[in-house]
Design a protein that fits this description.
Largest sheet: none
Distance between the termini: 13 Å
Strand content: under 5%
Number of domains: 1
Number of strands: 0
């Protein structure tokens, strides 16, 4: 049953990421459900157990995006996954609204910052504006807590 729920969850996330989220964009920004799912799983399970999700999700984001060089999203997800796990275990030990929001805020900001740095290093021609960065952080934060409690409720851990 656990494997069945996991497969359904993966298909649902992919469908929402590809089919629904691009249509609810604000200033060209929409939530990254793959990033949020990886962060949630890292907080709940630990980053090592989340490694298959990180690699699969990162490769999916790299293939899906026309701007990415293969591996950029994987590296970004790996770094923020470890960071979110570290923060949840060492800084924010209790699972409260404040702690979860802080972890998500820091991780989403770092992920977007890493993408900006990678895009500049590899000169992909894809530019992030300040407005895009802030809107991406806010938009992902809106979806972060519902994603956390949904995954926790589904017991995908």
């Amino acid at each position: 049953m656990k494997i069945f729920l996991t497969i359904i969850f993966i298909l649902l996330i992919l469908f929402l990421q590809l089919g629904i989220m691009p249509h609810i964009n604000i200033w060209g920004v929409y939530p990254n459900l793959i990033l949020l799912s990886v962060l949630v799983l890292s907080i709940i399970q630990g980053w090592k157990k989340t490694l298959p999700w990180i690699i699969a999700g990162g490769l999916f984001l790299d293939f899906y995006s026309l701007h990415n060089i293969l591996g950029i999203a994987v590296i970004g997800l790996l770094i923020v996954s470890y960071l979110s796990y570290f923060l949840s275990q060492n800084i924010f030990k209790k699972t409260t609204f404040f702690s979860l929001t802080s972890i998500f805020l820091i991780a989403i900001f770092i992920y977007n910052l890493l993408l900006i740095i990678f895009y500049e290093i590899f000169a992909t021609g894809f530019g992030f504006g300040f407005r895009t960065l802030i809107m991406g952080i806010i938009y992902n934060l809106i979806f972060a807590l519902p994603t956390f409690y949904l995954i926790k409720k589904l017991c995908l851990t």
